[in-house]
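Replying to the earlier thread about multi-chain prediction with a worked example.

Input:
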Amino acid sequence: MNIYRFVIEFLQIAILLTIAPAFTGWVRMLKCWSQGRTSAGLFQPYRDIIKLFSKDVLLADNASWIFRFTPYLVFGTAVLAGGIIPMLSLELPIASAADVIVLVALFAIARFFTALAGMDIGTAFGGMGSSREMTIASLAEPAMLMAIFTVSLASKSTSLSQMVHVIYSGQTVIRPSLAFALFAFILIALAETGRIPVDNPATHLELTMIHEAMILEYSGRHLALIEWANMMKLFLFIMLGAATFAPWGIAQTGEPAAIFAAFLIMLVKLVIVGAVLVIIETGLAKMRIFRLTEFLGSAFLLATLGMLSYFILE
Amino acid sequence: MITGPIGIIFYSILLLFLPVLLAPLLKNNQRVLINASFLTASAASLLGIVAGVWTVGGAFTNRIILAAGLPDLPFHLRLDPLAGFFITVICLMSFFISVYSLGYIKGYLGRRPVTSLVIFYNLFLAGMMMVVLADDALFFLISWEVMAAASYFLVMFEDERIENRRAAFLYMIMAHIGAIAILLSFGVMAGLTAGLGGFNGYTFDAMRQAQFPIGWATTAFLLAFFGFAAKAGVVPLHVWLPEAHPVAPSNVSALMSGVMLKTAIYGIVRVTFDLLGTFPWWWGAIVLIFGLISAVMGVLYALMQHDLKRLLAYHSVENIGIILIGIGLSMIFTSFNFPMLASLALIAGLYHTMNHAVFKGLLFMGAGAVLHATNERNMEEMGGLIHRMPWTAALFLIGCVSISALPPFNGFVSEWLTFQAFLLSPALTSPLLKLLIPLGAALLALTGALAAACFVKAFGVTFLGHWRGHRMPHVHEADWFMRSGMILAAFTCLVLGVLPTFFIDWMNIIPEQLLGTKMGAGSGAFGWLWLAPVARERASYSGTIVFLGILVVVVAAYIILHVKPGAIQRVPIWDCGFGKLNERMQYNSTAFAMPIRRIFGFLFHIRERVKLTPAGAYPAVPKRLHYYLRIRDRFWGWLYRPVVEFSFWMSRRVGRLQQGRIQAYLIYSFITIIVLLVFSK
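Result:
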């Protein structure tokens, strides 16, 4: 049984590694369709990654080991997070190594090193990206914590599997606090994964890019790892949201049939979330960077309202 | 013959006095003096570590009475687990820093004599250890003054610079205002314990047994909190800290920031939990609020700095705030009678005390190595040091990751525990606190994220990119003594982060003695791998698995991608084809902090001006640009300026007495004698 649990763990990481690019492909495809363009297909991200892996690395003269180490670290934290967030089953042996707060911190390590790598080469773009990324992160973090706090009030736990358990065993009443927290979480997730209206993943225009500015000097396999990790991060945030707010489908046991059903339901959720994301992204324009204070401030406010409504209404 | 752990510490303090006595004899041979005294300090600190670990582990309480002080007022010394914990923290860091000093202080050889530095360094260490051992108000205050005076002379060490003298003066004033408050606090407690007639109330034992009426207890607490807060650099009493810590020699900055501030934390814990014992919830609220303000303001001030050591000094304000958050929560939980939660919060605060000592010591040592190598404290002039100082860079990075509360290093463990304590606050019965305390958690999250931003800036600007200064000095890597001190501290950061359960089990005796309960379900209840403060369903964290997990994936990815030797070509930076990229175009620390300065600017007094000098025919293409930025502490204008002005005004008034004529002075003396004769019967 114990070995079987590790099999599920590895299965989940394998799904993360393989499905995440397809999900990004799906979002790009929908976006192309909604904007009247021809898409490159669902599998273009895989082709991109493979292409990058087979290319040589061009490294700036004064790049230090931090620049070379960062892609591996970013990739490593994403994979580790994939082993902790319940996607298929709650029977994850290493899940209790980290609760939601640790997960947030895991993404923070990746961000910390990416920002350092941005400053390593010594170009203006890199520093600009790092500075903006860290600013946005510091505004997003309190909102994220309030959202977590609100959700954990109901389940009295910050452990993800426990949160899922509570939602499964609890009454099916709709909690207003959860609705507020969900809205806050969506805003934060848009900021954390660098989507419109916070950052534009497709831009390379000097004045608007944030995340892309930090990784501008990367090439070859380093870039492949970072791009891949970035796709995984988007995927993981969706899984994190699904586990916290809509866990239905995640298997409570380790039976193969239940796992398979969980996998199918997960795909359905991904398809839906991808469509919602595209609607948000095509419907909104990218914000000026100093408008983001209001954007993330409203996320914080929503999460706080959620907490208040828990104490007042529930 | 004094035996047991307290004996070991007693002798290690005596050992610290040895270099003090020997220094004048050896002053003609500075190299021998440095070696002898810092080796003695290291040995004394090692003894202290043994005794401290032993005391806490064995839950001993030893005491000795020295017939040394004034007649009928012997010195009482006591070593209990709380004192043992702080002795461990002090000695651990003083060991690392003494090893580091063996290399660092040699940089002064041939430049200036270090005899006074050696004397006061050892006195400073001894003073800190004595503070923690003291078990009566008299000995406590004497030790406190030894510590303050020794550190004053250390700040003054390079006294030819005016800024050092000013900083030292400010430091001395603040230290003494604090000391007066502490003295008054002990006076209140001692007076209530045994009446004002005798001196029986001055021992801590007597204070422990006494019951204080709430009004007087509050007075004593507020005075003590004010006094210790002034020493700890709690906002708004923090102004001396960023002035005094950076100008001292770097090993002393490491001691002051990493260790000396902790004696103030010790004082707060000792007075509230031990001497006063019971308290209303709003005392805890005061500590919590000041903790939160210090944490957020400290990190924001730090972000505005471009002097590396000043930046680190402001981070001490932030971290003292985080420690006080834990202690404040613990006080609130205690007064609402939740001893389990109170012990969790207290452990969080104390664990952060230890963590902060280690990583702040490490960071100051790293900053010292940079200063030693470049003679530069201004980050705007630095850059690219990672290539010249690979060891210092890597070790400084570990310090940065730890202080930014990123797993798997130690800063994260204590912040995580503090968050857990926050998340348990809905257990409180007061609806107001239920609603307000979680907002504190958000502020703590903001602090953590801003600290990460600040250390990306500090490390990125100092060590990465290109050298920004006009002239690149000859930069050399730190020597092996300095490296060993930093390596030991960095390793401790990792161990405290990866194996927290061992240390928490070790120190769990402290809440048991102060609050009557150990922390939660015990950290070891689910095996050493899992840190689960309340119950495993509630929350758990395993630093070991996070560390190994990341390590395994990173190594695996690295190996897989290097099966066939991948080609890496080194090329010049891509300059978009313009070919005019230079190192002045890099982001510097002012630029990096600009978005945050703009968002949180309302908290500061900022004056920013840009002056363009147009170039004749083309006004759109300026010839020269002047950028002027001044950021000032609002508290200085609100709080200190009025006090300073008032005291000058008062002095001028009082100064009128000074006539310069002997007749007037004789009349003053005569009146004084008459008044004394009338009233002092």
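Chain A has one domain: 2-313.

Feel free to reuse this layout for your own posts.
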